[in-house]
Amino acid sequence: MRQVKLGVNIDHVATLRQARMEKNPDTVEAARVVYSSGGDMVVMHLRQDRRHIQDSDIERVRHEVKGLIHLEMAAIPEMEKLALRVRPDSVCLVPENPREVTTEGGLKLEGKQTELGKIIKNLSNAGIEVSVFTDPAPQAIRAAHNLGADSIELCTSKYSEAWGKKLQAKELEKLQLAGFLVKELKMHLHAGHGLDYYNVAPIARIEGMDCLNIGFSIISRAMFVGLKTAVAEMKRLIQ
Known about the structure:
Layout: E1 5-9, H1 11-20, H2 27-36, E2 41-45, H3 55-64, E3 68-73, H4 77-86, E4 90-93, H5 113-125, E5 129-134, H6 138-146, E6 151-155, H7 157-161, H8 165-184, E7 188-192, H9 200-204, E8 211-214, H10 216-225, H11 227-237
Parallel strand pairs: 1-2, 1-8, 2-3, 3-4, 4-5, 5-6, 6-7, 7-8
Helix pairs in contact: 10-11
């Protein structure tokens, strides 16, 4: 039976820590709990504004915790340099807007092919698997494939925000069709953004889905039941 992997984003463990500029809650401890609770990968988004995850979080989790590390980052030289130094197992190139509360959609590839191609090639040559965060649009998926990306992470925000069964079913169909294309191109299929305990199951059942990356809903749930339980509950839902 196919097992969908769970990547747990621990950004908002760091958000709480940064509110007081203290040492706790510690991202290293959070990563250890994620792995011991059934999580397959720890995900961290190192933003340019450093609003939550810091460079030291990436470095410490990489060196102090045994497990897969997935780094979300903007496609810029600063982040490329850090990734090549720290060597996460995989990287996802995502858009960033300094005014956004959270990522607002897939990475726009138009006009950036040369720059993105170089970054993807350099990361790949270093043995780092490269994913591109895209909307479920054929043109974007094909462009990422042509640039040499290994994986596509489909943005599920419109599905997550859809109100009512009809609208949600429409957005789910878009994701399913996009998933078919990703697998046709022989790429790994990931998805994430806005997924929670109530809407995740249909996404996990998309044919060929390899991994779901989920953060905010798990950390929110952990406030009441603990991180170990929150991760284990999500893991059960996606199987």
